[in-house]
Amino acid sequence: MMEETENHHQIFLLKGQTVVSSTEGNESIELSNIVNENDNNSDSGISPNDSEVEVLIPDQNHSRTPKTGLSTMFDHNEEKWYIVASQVFLPFMIAGFGMVAAGLVLERVKELNVFKEITEIYILIPALLGLKGNLEMTLASRLSTQANIGNMDKRSELQSMIIGNIILTQLQAIVVGFLAALVSLAMGWVPQGHFNVRHALVLCSSSVATASLASLALGGIMILVIILSHKCKINPDNIATPIAASLGDLTTLGILASIGGFLFKIIDNYAWLPIMITVIFLILTPIWIVLSSRNEYVKDVLIHGWSPVVAAMLISSAGGLILDFAVQTLRGVAVFQPVMNGVGGNLVAVQASRLSTALHQQGKPGEFQDVNRYHSSKLCPNPCSIFCSNKRSSSTTRALLFMAIPGHLTFVFIISRFATDQTRLSILFIFLYVFAALIQIAILLYIAQWMVGFVWRNERDPDNVCIPYLTAIGDLLGTALLTCVFLILS
Q1: At what angle do helices 197-231 and 272-293 cross, to 10 degrees?
Q2: Which segments of 21-153 does DSSP mark as H helices, in order?
């Protein structure tokens, strides 16, 4: 909270402290420290010493200026980079194998009649695969934060938290799945100039059913992983989102191909079935709304959590347009799409979840421990400070970025061994592919560093806002860059 006094001083009311910062200079002076010694900020896991504000007392000879790097906000209690890397690497590789499997599945299912006849399904695929970022990774980030600040230690709170989040993700999955189908139909209808009702029924029912079933399965797995990692004293931020990524693409593609293929076969004789499936799921939405509104852990997300999810779906659908073009014109691109998009979204989700947890350990959204961190949140980050400084947060960012190199090389090798669409993997292709992947991940990590601070300063929870946008931007960037690589080599 910030107010201006008649003396043109900015007053920051922080946790138990009042800090005055002169608008004429960069000095800040601690006026009072009224922290109760018994108030150890137990809810957020912070010790009293963590909330001390740096006292900058100007003298006649010099004045000390506050640090302005955005990374200042996130260096609080930051884990060493090699600890993060050791915890992230194994789940990251497991996630990558799941994405490779999803790519191989996509390569095979594109030969099914439903994929050949209803080409709009390729526009739908990135939006449905993106649900793991919109819903499951966001769920993992929310629950990881709750675990790290100690709210999972009571059984009654844990039970309420689990039930509320499962109901909320079901609601969001149904709504987003239905909207994604409508958007893909519109994007396919405009250039083609005609509308096929049979295709629309199959696409809508398949999308809604796939989104709901995949979200239920993945949400349950996420909750189990986070509870077990919390009990084993492992930071859930480092492992939950990679595991969501490992199962998300493969599960979603498998369900979509199965349901879509089945409904496409019987649509001529049983046109009422896809209509009934869609109507049943839509009828459930008001029930989920009422139940979510009564749960204290998700009622705020129910109100404010829609714009990121819907916007992310639209961004992913734009990537779907590119994928639709690429699959029909470029040989071999489909098998690499889940890996390219998934690795970038996976790593940036880990980073966003960690940055959000670091801020939650300082207080509530909109609160900053000192003047420097408030000013840092208003700055556009310097790329050098994010990737090249000697701060721990910068070291962690570099570790996540360069983790992609051995990961992608491993995944490309596996794809080359098992892909049926024999794409010749030259040294030039591998170089361009890895280079494009690094560009994608670097852009995502940069955006994450800025976005988490921006969202926090505007009193919104980064756990609910950032990951959907970041994974959707990753889908769009990844598909575009991958298509460029294939166009250069074609």
Answers
A1: 40
A2: 81-109, 113-117, 121-129, 131, 137-148
What the block records as the tokens of 43 is 């809810």
The whole-angstrom separation of Cα 288 and Cα 285 is 5
**345, 133 contact by CB (below 8 A):** yes
| 215-253 per-residue burial string, b: 16 or more CB within 10 A, e: under 16 | bebbbebbbebbbebbeeeebbbbbbbbbbbbbbbbbbb
Q: Which pLDDT score, from 0 to 100, does residue 461 have? A: 81
Q: Considering the chain, what is the average pLDDT of its residues? A: 77
CB–CB of 119/328 below 8 Å? yes
Stated length of the chain: 490
Q: What is the largest CA-CA distance in the chain?
A: 89
Whole-angstrom Cα Rg for the chain? 24
pLDDT tens-digit readout, 70-90:
444 555 455 676 777 777 788
CA 294 to chain centroid: 26
Whole-prediction pTM value?
0.71
DSSP state of 383: H
Count Cβ atoms below 10 Å from residue 484 Cβ, excluding itself: 14
User: 12 forms bridges with which residues in the sheet?
Assistant: 2, 19
Contacts of 474 (CB under 8 A, 6+ apart): 133, 341, 344, 345, 348, 440, 444
* CA separation, residue 435 to residues 298, 347, 383, 403, 417 (Å): 40, 16, 18, 13, 21
Phi, psi (degrees; rounded to nearest 5) at 18: -125, 125
Burial classification of residue 96, based on how many CB atoms lie within 10 Å of its CB (0-12 exposed, 13-18 middle, 19 or more buried): buried
What's the angle, vertex CA 242, arms to CA 239 and CA 243, rounded to 5?
Answer: 85
CA distance 463 to 466: 6
Mean pLDDT of 437-458: 89
Q: What is the mean pLDDT of residues 41-61?
A: 37
Pick the more confident residue, 464 or 258. 258
SS3 22: strand
Q: Which two tokens stand for residue 470?
A: 């970041």
pLDDT confidence of residue 52: 33
The DSSP string of 184-221 is HHHHHHHHH----HHHHHHHHHHHHHHHHHHHHHHHHH
3-state secondary structure at position 32: strand
Q: Give residue-wise pLDDT tens across range 346-400.
A: 888 888 888 887 887 777 777 776 666 666 666 677 777 777 777 767 778 888 8
**Cα gap 191→189, rounded to integer Å:** 6
- 3-state SS class at 152: coil
Separation of alpha carbons 296 and 160, rounded Å: 8
For the chain, give percent helix, strand, coil, nearest 5.
Answer: 70, 5, 25
